[in-house]
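Structural prep section.
Before we set up the soaks we want a predicted structure of the protein with magnesium ion in place, mainly to decide which crystallisation condition to try first. Input record follows.
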Amino acid sequence: MSIGTGASARFEAIREVNSRTPRKFDPPRDDHGKRLRISDFFGINTFDIRKMREKLPKEVFTKLLSTIETGKKLDPEIANTVAHAIKEWALARGVTHFCHWFQPQTGSTAEKHDAFLSLEENGRPVEKFSGSQLIQSEPDASSFPSGGMRTTFEARGYTAWDPSSPVFIMEHTNGKTLCIPSVFLSYHGHSLDEKTALMRSGEILSHKVCELVHLIGDKEIKRVVPTLGIEQEYFLIDRALFSLRPDLVMSGRSLLGGQPPKGQQLEDHYFGSIPGRVQSFMSEMEFELYKLGVPVKTRHNEVAPSQFELAPIFEEANIATDHNQLHMEILRKVATRHNFTVLLHEKPYAGINGSGKHNNWSLMVTCSGPSVDGENLLDPGKTPHENLRFLLILCAFLKGVYKHSGLLRAGVASSGNDHRLGANEAPPAIISVFVGDMLSRILNSIESGTAEQISDAEFIKLGVSRLPEIMRDNTDRNRTSPLAFTGNKFEFRAVGSSASSAFPITLLNAAVTDGISDVMEALKPKLTTAKTINAAILEVIRDVVKETKPIRFEGNNYSEQWVSDAEKRGLLNLKKTPEALAQLLTPAAIAMLTKHGVFSEAEVVSRFHVRIERYIKNMLIEVDTLRSMIETQILPACYSYYGMLASGIGAAKAANMPTPQQESATKLAALIGAVQSKRNSLSVMLSRLESFSNEEEKAKYLSREISLIMTEIRVASDELESLVADDYWPLPKYREMLFIT
Ligand code: ADP
Ligand code: MG
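Run finished without errors. Recording the tokens verbatim:
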């Protein structure tokens, strides 16, 4: 491919794409050439429980397992033995380096590699890996965002192994690294990462749920884990075309680009057959993930052209979140091998569906470590009691979401996600919960009943005892709700495709913990006054159903009507990131998060700062990229084309011929003028940014005035795109980028 920019580079790139022989991924085979099964290589690059059992002395394994189950710190006594076993396993697989793999608040992961190599006194080289190296490491952490929590003079933070998430081997083109999933803390014990709070929130939620179920007699439940199945949406684009779009390269989304004649309106892409090149990419990507023990299960086309989705089998939230980070990393890596670039941005293309990360969440009773083989508390059970327990937990969920909807909105706020949540697209910025028609009817009938009616016969009448069958038949699926109950789990759809699930799920866990806590406080006195436990539970359910009614919405969340109805209900509609993030700092949010011990106040405040800073940076990158594209690509292309028209007009006039180009030239001149004047306004507005002393004000200004003018520039530029001769246009167009051949 020729290097260069401008229209000729664009054509070269497209020609190159069209002439390419697709990379074929050949699935792995055994020595006799027979294809291996997935189960033959699943997890070969992870030191999972099975390998621990196999490679560790029995008593060490038992201790390690109990560490994993209880979430306690690893006994330093056994650390050396564990480290030795891991090292031997890794060396046998050709690994040379190790790293603590952690998740600073950048949304992605960080790692610093150290070789196993060490020199003995006599200079003899040996591979070494000690228990303390496994347990703890000190990256130079001063450049990771801390939201002001770590001043530079005590810039040190440390990472500590999280034994519940298996150690894994990451393969690179020229080597292999042992990655140790870790948390990242400051020396004062503040969490500097995404993972610590997620793990904390899970433990706290588990305790509260156990307290609640013990109160109603289910004393055998000892531990509960939040589970997650994270559906990941993404776009693929040809790498050659991607590299010609400075906006995609710099900001992940196209800041300019007119609509193609055909977008997603035909809906022919959804679940359609997957193009061969993409199929090959997917097989290789899945192969890489399987080796890492990531259980990817489904793949399909999404609604928009060149948009796809991948979904795993659900796991404990902490592991699922780590695995989703691996999804994103492997997606990027393998895409490159197939001459694609993966776009994880929430809104790569205007006018076409964006990408989300659907977080399927439930509560599982667990007995043995991180495996989630237990009962799902969001599954209605077999007996009236189990069904009531289900309804009680459902109500606690409704209560938590109702009270903390602003916080949940804050958890998914980012500059990218504003283009989904704030725009007319799935799902809206208004947080509401969909429970489905059948469950709604049951909740409504409980609401309108009276306390005295409660007998076993009443359960039947209310539909409580028939819940499982009713739910099984309940196939209605509302795809517009940000939080939908889907039979035995909630699907939180507002999370952005490029985000880590950790923070949103931490906040969801916290909100539900608070809901459970409230429900429990309401239940305690009723247990002594009501006739039976079931009667007491039903009374509480009734109160919560009444109170949380405004948060329940079964209709079309995209409609204009919903926006005004939601306002009447008093629900928040926080369209943009700055006002959404402000919810983190409300007294109610801080009180709740600190009361349950999910975050300290300093940690909450720092999260606000990290996120608002990231928002400002992202917005400024977009603005700068837009300005440079307009200045150095769009306007010059328009001038050239205008010059061509003008000389044609001059020549025609000289020859006394008609000048039909005049009409186009006049239109062009007007649009060029519009772009120039808006570009000038943008510069003036940007200089105002300096005058804001406060980050929040700066962010708001960017989200309103600056965003608006960026859109205006885009509209004018997109009109120019439709006017300027195709071979003058310097950027790959939507129709070229969106349709993979
Ligand atoms: P959809 O119709 O939304 O694609 P699926 O049934 O395919 O729904 O499931 C989507 C995701 O939900 C999968 O990742 C699946 O593993 C996950 N999931 C299923 N049950 C649970 C559960 N109890 N807890 C968490 N995630 C779950
Ligand atoms: Mg889904």
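Observations: Confidence is low (pLDDT under 50) at residues 368-372.
Flagged for discussion at group meeting.
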